[in-house]
Amino acid sequence: MSGRGRQRVDPARVAALDVLRAVRVEDGYTNLVLPAVLAQHGLGGRDAAFVTELAAGTIRRRATYDAVLAACIDRPLRKVESAVLDALRLGTHQLLGMRVPAHAAISTTVDLVRAKVSHGAGGFANAVLRKVSARDLDGWLAAVAPDAGSDPHGHLAVAESHPRWVVDALAEAVGEDDVAALLAADNVPPRVTLVARPGRASRDELPGAPTPYSPYGVTLDGGDPAGVPAVADGRAGVQDEGSQLVALALANAAVTGRDERWVDLCAGPGGKAALLAALAAERGAALTGVELHHHRARLVARAAAAGPGLAGVVQADATRAPFADASADRILLDAPCTGLGALRRRPEARWRRTPGDLAELVTLQRALLAEAARVLRPGGALLYATCSPVLAETAEVVTAILDAHPQLRLDDVRGSLPAVPDAEGPLPGTVQLWPHRHGTDAMFLALLRRE
């Protein structure tokens, strides 16, 4: 490759290709990979915004673009070199999902493939993308997506770019009438939401518009949240409003008797723990966080230690929690889950999760909830939460624990979040938040009591 050819390669598109490779090869997370790649290439401002949309949008719409590319390539996509396929996806997103002129989308992608793979591969990319540019997105969907009348879930899997099994599971949870709106909301990048940790910061000192349901949150119109003084000081943090509501639901639940010992059983990476610790401190209580992994335990300690209310962080397996029976007054179990309620902010998760993962996670969720029930004292409050609306992880887990533990009962958590409308969960008294209804991640909440 000549030096002249290499100079024509756009750094922003090289950076986007690097993000796709890191997500594909190293199992990276888009939101975590992007800052490092942008710093490596020295990109900021409009270039950084372009890379973010190009990389995240390509990952988000992968199924749609792969269906289009499959119609333009005379061999299975699995036989296309990975680096070339990544570049073709980037080019297709520019053609069908961004306001990039066709000639620029094609020529810059061809230059990228020639620089990163070979001159011959560049010619192949040129031929493919010219075919892609012959139609707009709607035209391609009409050509490659299954018929919506005869196969509605198959159509949505391509049109809204979700694996078919995920479409099936989400439709079961939200209902057929709402599933298209939910999937579309998954493809809209969320705005950054901040939380003012009570007793340490006030919402008034944070820039942005107040969140509709959490009294501590604001949504930013733009800018780097790290530049907000309260965030830099650890008095505020970045946290989706749905996660704020999980912490508030536990803190607002009534308890009888002592209210001193709060526990977050799966505390990493620490956002909910930090908010709970601040709320606990206002009442003279203290929170103990439990986290299995060392690096995540350190994140919890860092997030929650900037103010009072944190009794400590214990690195331990929460299925064998280091607490005596009936010793905790309030327990949060934000259980590990498929994360299918947070696909707006973690676009790669939809391509990584499998039905096998779901089965393994349900087994873990049931074990964790049984252990939480052991630690909960009579008169206390246990909040089970997942960042997934999938019924196997929500209603079925709760029903199973109630069947296995007669001393537990399901209470009504809706009274702890009275300002949140249209959030009835799959079991009476539970809450289910939705991106398309509430602008939050799809958090599930169930409040349990021990008789």
TrEMBL record:
Family matches, as Pfam families: Methyltr_RsmB-F, NusB
First-level EC class: transferase
SUPFAM superfamilies (UniProt xref): NusB-like (SSF48013), S-adenosyl-L-methionine-dependent methyltransferases (SSF53335)
Function, as annotated: May act as RNA methyltransferase.
Sequence positions that bind S-adenosyl-L-methionine: C266, A267, G268, P269, G270, G271, K272, E291, D317, D334
Name this polypeptide is given: Ribosomal RNA small subunit methyltransferase B
Domain of life assignment: Bacteria
Active-site residues per Swiss-Prot or TrEMBL entry: C387
Alphabetical UniProt keywords: Methyltransferase, RNA-binding, S-adenosyl-L-methionine, Transferase
InterPro entries: MeTrfase_RsmB-F_NOP2_cat, MeTrfase_RsmB-F_NOP2_dom, NusB-like_sf, NusB_RsmB_TIM44, RCMT, SAM-dependent_MTases_sf
UniProt-listed Enzyme Commission number(s): 2.1.1.-
Gene3D superfamilies: NusB-like, Vaccinia Virus protein VP39
Protein family according to the UniProt entry: Belongs to the class I-like SAM-binding methyltransferase superfamily. RsmB/NOP family.
GO MF terms, alphabetically ordered: RNA binding; RNA methyltransferase activity
BP-aspect Gene Ontology terms: regulation of DNA-templated transcription; RNA methylation
